[in-house]
Amino acid sequence: MIEEKKRRVKKAIKTSKKKTVVPKRTSTYCKILRLTAATTLLLTGVFQLKVVRAAEEEVPLMDKVIVTASRQEEKIASVPANVTVISAQDIARSPAETVPELLRSTAGIVVNDITGNGRNINVDLRGFGETAPLNTLLLIDGRRINQADLSGVDWTLIPKDRIEQIEIIHGGRGSVLYGDNAAGGVINIITKKGEELLFSGGLAGGSYQTLLSRLAVSGSTESLSYSLSSNFRTSDGYRDNGGTDAKDLGLNLEYFASDRFNVALTSGYHEDETEVPGALLLSELASGVPRTASTTPDDFADTKDYYAQLVPEIYFTENSYVKLETSARRRENDAFFSFIGGSFNAETEIDTLTASPQIIINEKLFGRDSKLIVGFDYRKNEQDLENESVFFGTPTTASFELSKEDMGVYGNAEVSITEELSVSGGFRHDQAEFESFSAGISDSITLDENVYNGGLTYTFSDSGSAYISYAKSYRYPVLDELFSFFTNTFDTTLRQQTTDDFELGMRAQFGPGINVSVNLFRLDTQDEIFFNPVSLANENLDGDTIRQGIELKASKKFSRILLKGSYTFRDTEIDGGTFDGNEIPNVPRHQFTIGTEAEILENVQFNMDGSYIGERPFISDFANAVDDQESYFYLTAKLAYIFEKGSAYVTVKNLLDEEYSEFGGLNFLGAPGVQPSPGINFLIGATFDI
Q1: Would you tell me how many other CB atoms lie within 10 Å of the CB of residue 445?
Q2: How distant, in Å, are the alpha carbons of 160, 429, 434, 635, 685 from that of 652?
Q3: Using the 8-state DSSP alphabet, how is residue 479 labeled?
Q4: What number of other Cβ atoms are within 10 A of residue 242's Cβ?
Q5: Is residue 89 within a helix (H) or strand (E), and if so which, with residue range?
Q6: Is CB count within 10 Å lower at the N or C end of the chain?
Q7: Rounded Cα distance, 443 and 435, in Å
Q8: What distances in angstroms separate CA 684 from CA 3, 156, 158, 245, 647, one per listed residue?
Q9: What would the pLDDT profile of 25-67 be if each residue is shown by its tens digit?
Q10: What is the rounded CA–CA span in Å between residue 176 and residue 426?
Q11: Which residues contact residue 15 at a Cβ distance below 8 angstroms, ignoring those fewer than 6 apart?
Q12: Side-chain-side CA neighbours of residue 451 (13 Å)
């Protein structure tokens, strides 16, 4: 494996030096694509240019290799789950400027930009709605990003330019390997490693006084690869009090000491200052309040976040090894929020230490390929909280020390029964202890859970496979669900939620360039943790929740154009209890995506992505008491020009200038409000390589 890694680095260096060969276009395609580009220019009044290097030869879907599904390398063909891979080529060509924008055009994923400035994002897999951030697990190079509090996932931690690949496992299969928060799915962002010596950078500006800049250097020697990057982003945002300033530094090092030992170091620093414009009531918008207005002109959230991850690997055979993942992280947050009935100002600091030793075995068993991973996860989260709140005229001040200590042991195996049939299964035992200490008074609770999964994959041809699987997943309450900002008290009655996940699917290639996949799923969740708008407290739902549906994806590659699309149907229902028979808030029944990539002229590429989100109940409307939030269709486009050592581009977002809102909910009085999303906006930029 070490030698294989070295060979891949050297091959990448050689590949990058090869001259790109652009095939000749037929006149028919040329006319069609020129007409498409001309139509887009008339619609937007702009034109865009961007560097995109054509791939030498696209890797077949079934042969693509991922690491997220089993915490080790394996082909997509063997995974009994719906898998999506966003490659480096996809990322380079996409009109998206951030990870959530990349995910927006992905089948089965709903993205809500809460404040419209790209800073506060909800990403939902499998229809968890308003609790999606706590049921979608984000990893960066296998390192958990979800926090132990309600801040959930910070999607700004990794800029797009630092990403090599994004791997998405839909459904709860990841709970065995990764633990808490994976009920809806797992998203793993894999960062770039150094190859040949390269200095690169970029600068872009656009609507709302937006400015983006980056600088990076990467390279490798016989035994060392390195990559260092810096990014800066500032924007006034679409709405009043909607600005954000952010900066990032990232470092990747990998040292190959010998054929038996290598070690990787990944670290980063993120800092941002973000204004929070707050929601506008539908009644306010109807009375003439501008969509750009803010009713919370003093709200803000400032963050500092830094981490380091060390991963030594020790090989005892050519393909089997011990992996010793350790990491440390500190996140500081200062936030002020106001609402009907009061406000709160909280200063928090969370320190996280993790250790994840693993034994990975890839050997033949009775002449058949087999994979086994056995590991132990330890996580310690310590939060210092200073909170000042005013709730219906009553001020309170509190200082709390909260902690979560989580330990889990797991095992997962995959065995090839025949050349066509493989079976996989895993088990995890996990236990978490939560503690609160304030003014000499302490409270604590201990929760534990056993989860498991199993799957069968049948490869019926070189270009197709089918699978069936079951997984049990879980989610513990986070510290902010146990701690109430309103009453400054610690709740010891909350229980963990559990989910049974059933899936059946197929993926295949039909003829040259046609990829199709279909997935049927059903999730039954017990004791789901939610914020009850009636009691104003976090509780376990007194009924079960059922989520079921179908995910369809298809793409067709022609000589100079790629067409792609997806459709997702979700049927959600609360079974029993106070909200029996109602739909789950913020989950659309219908969603589809469309996209195209086309080379229209010499060194010019056109890309367009569209996403339709259907009607869905407002957040907190578990009673389904008001009309659903409106559907919308979001379209982005980019036209890119390639030159020898760089690029220039223009991106157009919300191309149709649709008036819509991605995020909406009920206030404490039950009145619906929304966070208005931006109208048509532009970004013009350039990149360079030296």
Answers
A1: 18
A2: 17, 48, 47, 9, 12
A3: H
A4: 24
A5: helix 88-93
A6: C
A7: 6
A8: 42, 20, 21, 19, 11
A9: 333 334 323 333 333 333 333 323 233 333 334 556 666 788 8
A10: 6
A11: 56
A12: 32
- In the DSSP assignment, the letter for residue 54 is P
CA atoms within 13 A on the CB side of 427: 2
The pTM for the full model equals: 0.88
**Contact criterion met (CB below 8 Å) for 143 and 57:** no
Tokens standing for residue 112: 């809500």
SS3 91: helix
Helix (H) or strand (E) holding 480: helix 479-482
Report the C-alpha gap between 598 and 34 in whole angstroms: 10
- Picking from 582, 658, 655, the residue whose alpha carbon sits closest to that of residue 613 is 658
Q: What Å distances lie between residue 262 and 65, 218, 237, 242, 677, CA to CA?
A: 21, 19, 44, 45, 47
Distance CA 567, CA 551 (A): 6
Q: Which two tokens stand for residue 349?
A: 């600091």
At 135, is the secondary structure helix, strand, or coil?
helix
Residues 6+ apart with CB under 8 A from 568: 107, 108, 549, 550, 551, 552, 590, 591, 592
DSSP state for residue 629 in the 8-state scheme: B
pLDDT at 341: 78
DSSP state of 660: -
Nearest to 603 by CA among 574, 643, 569: 643
Helices (H), 217-290: 282-286
Average pLDDT of the chain is: 87
Angstrom distance (rounded) from CA 308 to CA 188? 17
Phi and psi for 559 in degrees, rounded to 5? -65, -35
What domains can you pick out in the chain, each with its CATH number?
2-689 (2.40.170.20)
Q: Which H helix or E strand runs over 32?
A: helix 27-44
The token pair at 536 is 């104003």
Asked if 66 contacts 78 with a C-beta cutoff of 8 angstroms, the reply is: no
Strand 280-281: give its sheet, edge to edge. Answer: 280-281, 672-675, 663-666
Amino acid making up residue 86? I
**Cβ neighbours of 662 (radius 10 Å):** 23
Judge residue 73's burial from the number of C-beta atoms within 10 Å of its C-beta, 0-12 exposed, 13-18 middle, 19 or more buried.
Answer: middle
pLDDT of residue 394: 83
Task: Give the pLDDT confidence score for residue 160 in this predicted structure.
Answer: 83
Q: Rounded to whole angstroms, how far apart are CA atoms 119 and 276?
A: 10
Is the separation of the CB atoms in 372 and 412 below 8 Å? Answer: yes
d(CA 625, CA 87): 43
Beta-carbon contacts of 589 under 8 Å, excluding residues fewer than 6 positions away, are 569, 570, 571, 572, 614, 615, 616
State the burial class of residue 31 (Cβ atoms within 10 Å of its Cβ: 0-12, 13-18, 19+). Answer: exposed
User: How confident is the model at residue 570, as a pLDDT?
Assistant: 97
Query: Of 129, 57, 89, whose CA–CA distance to 523 is shortest?
Result: 129
432 — pLDDT class (breaks 50, 70, 90): very high
Q: What whole-number distance in Å separates Cα of residue 542 and Cα of residue 544?
A: 7
Distance CA 553, CA 369 (A): 30
Cα angle vertex 350, ends 409, 376, to 5°?
10
What CA–CA distance (Å, rounded) separates 227 from 208? 31
Residue 184 near residue 461 (C-beta atoms within 8 A): no
Spatial distance between the Cα atoms of 683 and 638, rounded to a whole number of angstroms? 10
Tokens of 488: 């400054």
